[in-house]
Amino acid sequence: MKLKKNWGLLLMLTIMTAVLVACGGGDTSKDEVSTSGKKTVNLMESAEIPSMDSKKGTDGVSFTAQNTVFEGLYYLDKDDQVQPGVAKADPEINDDQTVYTIKLRDDAKWSNGTSVTAKDFVYSWRKIVDPKTAAEYAVIFSGVVKNATKITNGEMKPEELGVKAIDDNTLEVTLEQPVPYFHSLLTFPTFYPQNEEYVEKQGKDYAKDSEHMIYNGAFTMKDWNNTSKSWSYEKNNKYWNKGDIKLDKINLQVIKDPGSAVNLYTTGKLDRATLSGDYAKQKQSDKDFTSNLDAFVYFLKFNQKLDGKATIFANENARKAIATVIDKETMVDTVLANGSEPIDGLVPSKFTFNPETKEDFRKENGDLLTYDKAKAQEYWKKAKQELGQDSITLEFLSDDQEFSKKMSEYIQNELQTSLDGLKINIKTVPYKSRLKLDETQDYELQLARWGPDYQDPSTFLGVFETTSSYNRSSYSNPEYDKLLKEAATTLATKPEERWKALLQAEKILIEQDTGVAPLYQNGVAALQNPKMTGFVSHLFGAPYSYQWIEIK
C-alpha cells in the first residue's frame, strides 16, 4: 500500500499519512452524549481522502476510510486474524489450492436495502482488471487470480477473469497457482464489492461525494467530497452486525499541524491527537500518551529515469552515497520522537516470520544498509567522477504534512553538509499532489512510504519488480525479478525455499543495488482519551478499524 500501500501499496498502503483515530471523552463528547443520547467521537486525519472508490484507492488514508464504510468477504479482527465478513465462513479450497468456493451470508445488505451478492464481487473485480478502468491496484490481482495479467495487458477480456457467481450466495475464485496469503488478501479494500446497478446509474458521479455511494460496512459516510477537510460517519442500520457497533457517529477533521491537534485535544474537541517531534517528547509522561510501532516503512525513492533520460540515480554510487549518509537513529529520536525505529532493510520487523523457525524476517536478514558517513563520502566522490560533475543540484519531493516537512529539512541538511558539492531543493506539495507526481514518475528524489497489503514479504518486495505498476523509479534487476517470480510460482508450495528466495531478493534490492534507501519503520504516538476502548490498528491491509471503538 502506498504509503500511498504507495499500504498497497498497499500499502498498501503511512501511520502518519494514514488515518489516526480515537474515541470519545473530551468535554465536547460528554456533552453530546448526555444531551442527544448519541455516542459520538471526534477523530483526526492527517490528509484529505484521495478516493473513496475501491477501484481507485491506493493509499492508507483512502483505505482506512473505505474500510470504515465498506466490507469485503473477510475482515481483520482486533488481533489481525482473518474473520468472515460478507462471507459466512472460511473458503472451501480444492486439493491443489487453486479454487476457492466462498459462501456469502444471507443478511449482508447495502445501505439502500439491496442484498450484497456474489455478482457484486464479480462486477467489482472485473472492473478493476479492465484496462479501461486504469486501476493502479489491478497489479494486486496479477499472477494471483487466473487470467488477471493477460486481461490487464489487453490480451483477454475482463469476463475471462477467474471469478464467477455460482448463485447469489456462492462465489468461486480460481487462482493462477497456489497463493499462500490469498485468504488474508481478501480482506484488502481493492477486493471489496460494488453494486453494478447502482454504480452504473451514477456513472462518472460514483464516489465523487458521500451522496453518490451506497455502503455495506459498519458505518455510512456523510458530508464528504474529494476536497473535504471534515466529514462524518454514522452507524449503518443495514449492516449485518450492527448490534456490535457501539458508536452512533464519528466526526473526522483533517489536521496537519500537531500543535493544533494538541490544542483541540486539551480543549475536549478531539479524542485523539497524533504527535511527533517536540510534542511527542513533551507528552511522553502524560497519562493520556500512547504509542505503537506499525508496519509502514518510510524510504527515499531514487528515480533513475525522468522524461526518458537517465538521472544521476542511474549511478549506483550516487544512490549508495545518499542511502548511507543519513543518521537514521538521530533522525527518529529528534525529528519524530514518536516510537519510530531506524530500519536497514525494506521488510519491517514484527511483521512476518519464517514458516519453520518462526524467526522474524527482519532479524533473519539483518541490517543491509547502515549509516556510515565516511563510506558515503567515498561513494559520493566516485559518483561525481563517474558522472563528470563536481556540483549537483537535486529536487527533493515531499508533501505538506507537518512531519514530512520536518523530515525533509533534516534529510536536506544531512545531505548538503556531508556530501560535498550537493545542493538539495525541497519541493513541498499537497499530499494528493505528491501521489500524482509519484504516479507519473515526475520527481528526482522523494520521501515515500509503503504499507503492507497482506502479511507476506512479497507485499513490499513486489513493488520493485521491473513490471510492477508501482515501480515508479525505473529500478530493474533480472535476478531480483527471477527470485520473486519463483516465490510466486514454483516455490509457492515450498514454504522454506520460498522464504529463502525472498530473503535473497531483499539483499539484492537493498544491500547490492540500493534500489531504495530505507529510513525507518513507522511509530504512531498520540494523546488518547482514556475513556476510549476498541481503537484498532492493523499491521497490514487498511491501517485502522473504527468498528470496535466504544465510550466508557
UniProtKB/TrEMBL annotation:
GO biological process terms held by the UniProt record? peptide transport
Q: InterPro entries, per this entry?
A: Peptide/Ni-bd (IPR030678), SBP_5 (IPR039424), SBP_5_CS (IPR023765), SBP_5_dom (IPR000914)
On whether Signal is a keyword of this UniProt record, the answer is yes
Q: Does the keyword Iron apply?
A: no
Which residue range or ranges hold the Solute-binding protein family domain? Answer: 81-469
Localization:
Cell membrane
Any one GO CC term of the record = ATP-binding cassette (ABC) transporter complex
Topology term for the membrane: Lipid-anchor
- Single GO molecular function: peptide transmembrane transporter activity
Its primary localisation, in coarse terms, equals membrane
| Keywords of the record | Peptide transport, Protein transport, Signal, Transport
Q: Which residues does UniProt assign to the signal peptide?
A: 1-24
Protein family:
Belongs to the bacterial solute-binding protein 5 family.
Its recorded name reads Peptide ABC transporter substrate-binding protein
Native species of this protein? Listeria weihenstephanensis
